[in-house]
Design brief:
It is a single chain. The chain is mainly β. 0% of the residues lie in helices and 49% in strands. It comes from Carya illinoinensis. This is Dirigent protein.
């Protein structure tokens, strides 16, 4: 079966996917869908662990957070739900803020219902542009590999809320 190229746009833990080509008749049920607006949400995470020195560290080194956030179709948090972003991230840098991220973007609605994409990598969140690996997927994204380019669009220093764009390229 010939590989197919799929482009996925993630804006802070939300996913919209556009397949560029179909590889067989069995895949034809999954037709191409282009979303008119970008997908956006805020990350809400819960602290689950920290090192003894985390509170004294300027980078919060050792902090581990869990996330389970809605994936919506547009910027409006009340827009159509298309899935969930679930995973963890931890502060892994002692000299600069750098998060190690393991996230699963799972679709529960629409054309990609039941499929998911998995991201793993270091996210030096103070850099204007970051790259992380796509290490797998399920369903239509089975055997996925690729990369995500992340860029912060908005950050609230008081609450820690952020909107980060993830432009993801997946080949499976």
């Amino acid at each position: 079966m010939a590989p197919k190229l799929v482009t996925v746009l993630l804006l802070f833990f939300l996913v919209a996917a556009i397949p560029c080509a179909q590889s067989s008749e069995a895949d034809n049920w999954a037709t191409s869908k282009k979303f008119p607006k970008k997908t956006v949400t805020k990350l809400h995470a819960i602290r689950v662990a920290q090192a003894a020195g985390t509170q004294k560290s300027p980078t919060l080194f050792g902090l581990v957070m869990m996330a389970d956030d809605p994936l919506t179709k547009t910027v409006d948090p009340n827009s159509e739900l298309v899935g969930r972003a679930q995973g963890l991230y931890g502060s892994a840098g002692q000299q600069e803020l750098g998060l190690i991220m393991a996230m699963n973007y799972g679709f529960t609605h629409g054309i990609y219902n039941g499929s998911s994409v998995s991201l793993l990598g270091k996210n030096p969140s103070t850099h204007p542009v970051r790259e992380m690996a796509i290490v797998g997927g399920t369903g239509l994204f089975r055997f996925a590999r690729g990369y995500a380019i992340a860029q912060t669009h908005w950050f609230d220093t008081n609450t820690g809320d952020a909107i980060v764009g993830y432009n993801v390229t997946v080949v499976n």
